[in-house]
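Entry for 48F complex. Fields follow.
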Amino acid sequence: MEYIKIRQVDEVKITRYIVKYTMEDWMDIADSDVVIVGAGPAGLTAAYYLAKAKLKTVVFERRLSFGGGIGGGAMHFHKLVIESPADEVLKEMGIRLVKAEEGVYIVDSAEFMAKLAASAIDNGAKVIHGVSVDDVIFRENPLRVAGVAVEWTASQMASLHTDPIFISAKAVVDATGHDAEIVSVAARKLPELGINIPGEKSAYSEIAEQLVVENSGKVVEGLYVAGMSVAEVRGLPRMGPIFGAMVLSGKKVAEDIMKDLGVYKS
Ligand code: 48F
């Protein structure tokens, strides 16, 4: 049987296009304004507002998916609770909410993560999947976090001894969830930063949301914390599958960074 060629893209072109356009992106993000670690609700919300403010924003996500804990819903039930005023952020992104009672809304987890990610990307954030951040870069005078070290998640999973590459940034956001991986590595490897991590407390939903949002923001110069990492870093209670605080925490961190970088006046 003889095949008839009806398309122009052969294997060489496929390879060259993918390598060329991937490398163009990496050349660009090597010096970013903001690196966000984790594409969960807090990280993606922060990315949305930072990219909207025209800051060069990259999100590194260990997994090959968006949304962090959103996708698992509540014990795999596909609904999450959002308490006002976080509903305003979701409505701004076109995410549909069902009102359960005054100020309390229910959201579909698939719609939440899909539209949140699309909103961040549509506004200019770059999301890179399959990459883990395992360290920070630091500089002195003044002492500050100045970027991150990144590695393929696949290399880590295979326990391959591979050195990372580096991405510089004016601000790094730890949005890694309950383990606060980036603040933890900075605390361990740079004791001169004076970071003390008390660890997350057990659940107390009615107070936890407010506390997490209020305590989101700068940890040390150049390093910020958002989402459940805040509970770990500041010793606050968790709140379970109620997600308004994650969104408002991401928004707060974005506003703090915009103020610190001089692109936002409240
Ligand atoms: O865990 P995650 O959803 O964090 P969040 O935005 O939201 C927390 C809620 O999901 C939930 C909750 C709400 O009440 O309690 O747990 O604070 O998303 C964190 C993302 O970061 C990725 C991880 O795969 C997940 O998608 N991540 C974690 N560590 C790294 C990382 C790392 N070192 N490098 C890259 N990605």
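NOTE: The pocket of 48F is lined by residues 37-43, 60-63, 68-69, 132-133, 175-177, 181, 227-229, 238-240, 243, 246 (CB under 6 Å).
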